[in-house]
């Protein structure tokens, strides 16, 4: 049986650098994701922990697995809502796709093709940052419109797998750590 990473594989630290000091009690968590199943389990754990008003900034190079992780969050949230999982295509061309769940709506955005930050307002993202759960690929395009309390997940290649570095409010890192079957 192929095992995804367990919580013992993670390294965890309280926020201490200058950037994080501005945001209060942020913590870091580094997870090894050796295969796509591990990515799916992280998405499932996030779906259980995210709440209305949470924005997740998914960074990493082309092919790092941002869409795969967003898809896992969305499909897990739909399963938890008793809905059959929908197809979750990459929003490369539509820029934004929205998904209903029993809880908050989930907005999945890929801002790679954005040419001007003014388009962020046109896409309706600003109210969504408060009213929905937002999963944002290529978040550098947000510029100053980036929510100050956003959850950051940086994905890197790690051999054939991936590594995820999370920076998030302590309550989310704690919630991920406290789950019975953590990632
Ligand atoms: N943990 C993992 N281990 C190995 N492969 C993975 C893992 N997670 C995702 N992948 C694979 O990585 C590939 C690229 O994933 P994905 O399309 O999600 O990348 P992306 O970061 O969204 O790229 P883009 O910048 O083009 O939007 C997919 O084939 C996916 O199956
Ligand atoms: Mg993508």
Automatic annotation (TrEMBL):
Taken from the UniProt entry, a GO cellular component term is: cytoplasm
Q: What is this protein called?
A: tRNA threonylcarbamoyladenosine biosynthesis protein TsaE
Q: Pfam families, alphabetically?
A: TsaE (PF02367)
Q: Does Coiled coil appear among the keywords? A: no
Family statement drawn from the similarity comment of this UniProt entry: Belongs to the TsaE family.
Naturally occurring in which organism (per UniProt): Jannaschia aquimarina
Keywords in UniProt for this one? ATP-binding, Cytoplasm, Magnesium, Metal-binding, Nucleotide-binding, tRNA processing
Question: PANTHER family this protein is in?
Answer: TRNA THREONYLCARBAMOYLADENOSINE BIOSYNTHESIS PROTEIN TSAE (PTHR33540)
Q: Where is the composition biased (Basic and acidic residues)?
A: 1-11
Q: Which intervals of the chain are annotated as region Disordered?
A: 1-21
| GO BP field | tRNA threonylcarbamoyladenosine modification
Q: Does the keyword Glycoprotein apply?
A: no
Query: What InterPro entries is this protein classified in?
Result: P-loop_NTPase (IPR027417), T6A_TsaE (IPR003442)
SUPFAM superfamilies xref list: P-loop containing nucleoside triphosphate hydrolases
According to the UniProt entry, its GO molecular function terms are:
ATP binding; metal ion binding
Localization: Cytoplasm
């Amino acid at each position: 049986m192929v095992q995804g990473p367990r919580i013992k594989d993670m390294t965890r630290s309280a926020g201490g650098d200058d950037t994080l000091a501005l945001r209060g009690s942020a913590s870091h968590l580094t997870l090894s994701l050796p295969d796509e199943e591990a990515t799916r389990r992280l998405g499932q754990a996030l779906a259980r922990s995210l709440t209305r008003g949470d924005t997740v900034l998914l960074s990493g190079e082309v092919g790092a697995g941002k869409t795969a992780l967003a898809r896992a969050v969305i499909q897990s949230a739909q399963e938890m809502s008793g809905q059959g999982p929908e197809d979750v295509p990459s929003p490369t061309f539509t820029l934004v796709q929205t998904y209903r769940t029993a809880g908050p709506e989930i907005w999945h955005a890929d801002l790679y093709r954005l040419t001007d930050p003014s388009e962020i307002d046109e896409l309706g993202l600003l109210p969504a940052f408060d009213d929905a759960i937002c999963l944002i690929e290529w978040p550098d395009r947000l510029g100053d419109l980036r929510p100050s309390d956003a959850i950051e997940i940086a994905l890197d290649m790690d051999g054939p797998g991936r590594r995820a570095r999370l920076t998030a409010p302590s309550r989310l890192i704690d919630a991920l750590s406290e789950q019975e079957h953590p990632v």
